[in-house]
Design brief:
By secondary structure, this protein is α/β, with parallel strands linked by helices. It has 10 helices and 11 strands. The protein binds guanine. The site of guanine (GUN) has 7 residues, from strand 4.
Length: about 290
C-alpha cells in the first residue's frame, strides 16, 4: 500500500509556484492576485477562506478577502462581482459557497467572468472541461488529477467508480476520468443516493473516488484487493480529546480498507491540501492569461 501524500506533494508544488512568482516579480510583473468574497459567517467557510488567504501569502500572491453580510441582496453581490470582473489588478476570484438561501448560487456563478473563474464553476469552464479544451478545472478534481498523475497511477482502461455526483467533485471527476487524456481513459461508473446495491459497483472498482461526506462509509468488504482509493470526505466529527473539539473523518474506514489498497489518500493530508494548491495554480494561469 502506498499513500498518495497530498501534504507532501502540495508542499513541493507550492515551492514551484513560489519560484515562478519570484521570477515574475523580478522581471517587473505584478504578483498574481486572488480575491475571495465571503458572505455571512459560516464556520467552515471562514476556515477555508482564511486558509486560502494564508496560502496566497506563502507563495507570494496578493490576496483580497471581501466580507459581505448574511443579509446582502443578490443584486448587491452581483454588483460586487462585476467590480471584480472589471478590476485589472485582480487576476482571479471566488465566491465561497454555500451562500445564504435567499441568493441563487447559479446566477452568482454565472455572473463571474469565466476568464477569472479560478474555481472552475462557471458553465463555460464546465463545458470546456467536458470538451477537453483549455479551462480552469474545479480545484478538488484538479488536485485529484495531479495526485494520480504525479504518483504515476495507471488509469487507462481501468474501471473507475465515483461515489457522489456533486457539481464540485463527483460529476467533474466522472467527466475528467472518462476523457481521452492522461490521467483518463477510464470506464466510469457514477454512483449516487439512488444507486441500488452500491457495494456491487464499489467491489468492481479499480479506482474508487468517494465524495459523499459520510464518515467510514466504505468498509473493507466493499472493495477489491489492489484498489486505488481517493477519499474526498472531510467531515468534522466531535472529539473531546482534540484541541478544537473535533477531528476530520474521511468517507473511507482507512484502518480496515488500506491493507487492501495499492494506493490510498489519507484524511487529513490527502486530497485537502491538493485542493488549495490547485486554486493557486489556477490563479497563476489567470495571471499569465492562459485561459481566455
Ligand atoms: N465551498 C466548498 N468548497 C468550495 C470551493 O472549492 N470553492 C468555493 N467557492 N466554495 C466552496
Amino acid at each position: 500500500m502506498q499513500l498518495l501524500n497530498g501534504k507532501e506533494l502540495s508542499r513541493i508544488l507550492k515551492g514551484e509556484i513560489k519560484t515562478k512568482v519570484d521570477k515574475m516579480v523580478e522581471n517587473g510583473a505584478r504578483a498574481p492576485h486572488l480575491a475571495a468574497i465571503l458572505v455571512g459567517s459560516n464556520g467552515a467557510s471562514e476556515t477555508y477562506v482564511n486558509h486560502k488567504v494564508k496560502m496566497c501569502q506563502e507563495v507570494g500572491f496578493e490576496s483580497t478577502l471581501l466580507r459581505m453580510p448574511e443579509t446582502v441582496s443578490e443584486k448587491e453581490l452581483i454588483e460586487q462581482i462585476e467590480r471584480f470582473n472589471k478590476a485589472d489588478f485582480i487576476d482571479g476570484f471566488i465566491v465561497q459557497l454555500p451562500l445564504p438561501r435567499h441568493i441563487n448560487a447559479d446566477r452568482i456563478l454565472h455572473a463571474i467572468d469565466h476568464r477569472k473563474d479560478v474555481d472552475g464553476f462557471h458553465p463555460v469552464n464546465i463545458g470546456r472541461m467536458a470538451l477537453n479544451q483549455a479551462c480552469y478545472l474545479p480545484a478538488t478534481p484538479y488536485g485529484i488529477m495531479q495526485l494520480l498523475e504525479l504518483y504515476n497511477v495507471d488509469t487507462s482502461g481501468k474501471h473507475c467508480v465515483v461515489v457522489g455526483r456533486s457539481n464540485i467533485v463527483g460529476t467533474p471527476m466522472s467527466i475528467l476520468l472518462s476523457r481521452n487524456s492522461s490521467p483518463g481513459n477510464c470506464t466510469v461508473t457514477l454512483c449516487h443516493s439512488r444507486t441500488q446495491n452500491i457495494e456491487k459497483f464499489t467491489r468492481e472498482a479499480d479506482i474508487l473516488i468517494v465524495a459523499l461526506g459520510k464518515p467510514n462509509f466504505i468498509r473493507a468488504n466493499m472493495v477489491k484487493e489492489g484498489v486505488v482509493i481517493i477519499d474526498v470526505g472531510i467531515t468534522r466529527v466531535p472529539d473531546s480529546t482534540r484541541k478544537w473539539g473535533y477531528r476530520l473523518a474521511g468517507d473511507v474506514d482507512f484502518e480496515g480498507v488500506s491493507p487492501k489498497c495499492s494506493f490510498i489518500t489519507p484524511v487529513p493530508g490527502g486530497v485537502g491540501p491538493m485542493t488549495v494548491v490547485s486554486l493557486l495554480l489556477n490563479t497563476l494561469k489567470a495571471a499569465n492569461k492562459e485561459i481566455y
